[in-house]
Amino acid sequence: KETGEKFLRLGMSTYPLLCYLPDALEIFNQRYPHSRIIVIEDCPEGLVAKLRNNELDLVVCNLSEGINCVDLVTQDFKCETFSLYQGNNQSSDELPLDDTKWVVPHSCTAGRLAMQDSSFPCTQQGNVVETDSFLATWCLVKQQGYLALLSDHIVAHYSPQLNLKKKSAEDINISACFYIIKRDEPMTSSITNDFTEILMAM
User: Fold this and answer.
1) In angstroms, how far is the first alpha carbon of the chain from the final one?
2) How far apart are CA 36 and CA 198, in angstroms?
C-alpha cells in the first residue's frame, strides 16, 4: 500500500502451472503492469496448508482424497484429460506390460487409481515411480524409456520440444479436475478476484 505496488501470492501444482499460467500472466500483466506475482509450486497438500497459513492468496491444484477444504472457498476450474505417453524414439509398444516402466503423477488421485488398476498388477518388479515433478518425469521418459501419464493439454502445447507420442491404451485415459481455492474471507482483494476471473475465462 505504501508503494502502490500490488502483490499476488499464487500457488499452483505442476499441471495447471504448465497449462494455464503463461497465458493468464500475459493477460494479468496487461491489466496490472506494476504488479508483482510470487508463484509457488507444490503438491496440493502443501499448497492448501500455505493458503490456510496466509502464505498464499490463491491456489490452483487438483484435490486428492485426503485434503479437506470445508473451511475454504473451492471453485471448479478445469478438467484435463491424461493419456499415456512415451518417447518418440522408444519402442515400448513392443514390450510386454510386465517389462514396462511407468511414471505416475503422485498428486493426481484419478491417475494413480487408473494406473493401479491397469499397470500395478503388471509391474511385479516395482518399476513404478510416483512424482509430481515434470522435469523428473521428462528425464525418466527421455533417458530411461519410462511411460508417463501426462496431460494431453501440456503435450499438445509443448509437443515440438517434448517429442512424445501417445501410446494406445484406451483403458488408461483418465480425467483429473483442478480447482481454484481461496480463503473464506468477507473481503478478498481485487487483484485476487481479477486473477480468478482471468483463469475462469480461459
Assistant:
1) 30
2) 16
Rounded distance between C-alpha atoms, residue 179 and residue 77, angstroms: 5
Please give the DSSP secondary-structure letter assigned to residue 136: H
Backbone angles phi, psi at 96, to 5 degrees: -65, 150
- CA–CA distance, 5 with 35 (Å, rounded to integer): 6
Question: Of 48, 44, 51, which Cα lies nearest the Cα of 14?
Answer: 44
Q: Residue 27: is its pLDDT beyond 90? A: yes
Q: ∠ at Cα 39 (35, 45), nearest 5°? A: 140
Grid cell locating 16:
495447471
- What 3-state DSSP class applies to 120? helix
Alpha helices in 33-77, H assignment, sequence order: 44-52
pLDDT tens digits for range 151-195: 888 888 877 777 788 877 666 667 788 999 999 988 778 889 999
Residues 15 and 151 sit within 8 Å (Cβ to Cβ):
yes
